[in-house]
Amino acid sequence: MIAAADFNITLTQQSRLKDFDVKEIPFGKYFTDHMLVVDYTNGEWQTPQIMPYGPIPMSPASSVLHYGQAIFEGIKAYKFPDGNVYIFRPYDNFKRFNLSAERMVMPQVPEEIFMEGMRQLISIDNKWIPQKPDHALYIRPFMISNDEALGVKPSGSYKFMILLSPTGPYYSAPMRIRVEEYYVRASKGGVGSAKCAGNYAASLYGATVAQKEGFDQVLWTDAEEHKYIHECGTMNVFFIIGDTAVTPDLNEGTTLAGVTRDSVITMLKEAGLKVEERPLSIDEVVAAYKAGTLKEVFGTGTAATISPIKELVYRDLEMKFDVNTWTISPELKRKLDALRNGELPDTHGWLYKV
Ligand code: COI
User: 236-241 and 244-247 as β-strands: parallel, antiparallel, unpaired?
Assistant: First the structure.
């Protein structure tokens, strides 16, 4: 059991905060003064270290560089006007992190390291938390394998780390998305439900091809028929069809179990909408669009928050929406923002005080 006193803390001699004067903070470009590093060797987690942010020494033969055993999470912390700091649903990310670890044959990270490490790191660097609309402190826990060996097998040593990044919105404008019918993000029996680095590497080619054609992202579909919708890669997706919110279910393990997705499902139900988690075909979406019942399409994610999709392109059909007329997703975003800024009571116990 690791207690707060067991952390080894080395503070920076020179904070970079005074030089951090950025008007529009882009996503994931700036990092705070400190980071958490915990090594796993000889079957045990070693003493957690909080140290100045910077490069880490690694062997060029480190197994992660060759075979990619790497997982991560994305979490956000907010500073209320009274100065108190809250993390949004960190236990849910902690649980998902260890599910990803299991799928990638990596060791479980104990709660005392994940939660207490995050809490202590944020307390130390709390002055970096931006207090502007749509801004937050993005928390990036991750784990990499670290054996110095080229054999293909699960590594014996690992590094668990947490970085903090003051950040603005990931998508600053409504998006143009193309339905992907050739490249594949995830298939049954694969690692689609794990938040592993390889999923993101594998998504880059299809996304780059689409971006060259003027799209922001692709909407991934199933590997067998390219008929059923999965997710957008950086976010889960919701479709408001008539008076029902439909989002792809998680049953086949091809879609990430988003924490924002789960929050949105709860909030939609509380707002009196019917919510269906089920297989959703692109044919059904097209039919709803043509019938005039497809009201709103939006993505959800920690980085993406709630992001409207203004155009969804399937083959030669351009499904266009006037996002200014939408009511449901803007209201969801308003409520989620108000909760995260302390303007609405936390009736679900989603906020964890630092
Ligand atoms: C997140 O929403 O936190 C993500 O991990 C998505 C992306 C930035 C990789």
Answer: antiparallel
pLDDT digits (tens, 9 = 90+) for 21-54: 778 899 999 999 999 999 999 999 999 999 999 9
| Ligand 1, atom 8, residue with closest C-alpha | 303
* CB distance 74 to ligand 1 below 6 Å: yes
Distance of alpha carbon 66 from its chain centroid, rounded?
A: 24
CA distances 139 to 54, 107, 214, 296, Å, are: 16, 21, 30, 30
Q: How far apart are CA 29 and CA 95, in angstroms?
A: 26
- Number of domains the chain is built from: 2
pTM here is 0.95
In angstroms, what is the span from residue 233 Cα to ligand 1's centroid?
A: 9
Residues 149 and 180 in one domain: no
Q: With 90 as the cut, is the pLDDT of residue 3 above it?
A: no
Residue 350 domain flag: no
Q: Which atom of ligand 1 is nearest to the CA of 27?
A: 8
Tokens of 171: 């998508």
pLDDT at 169: 85
Atom number of ligand 1 nearest to Cα 170: 8
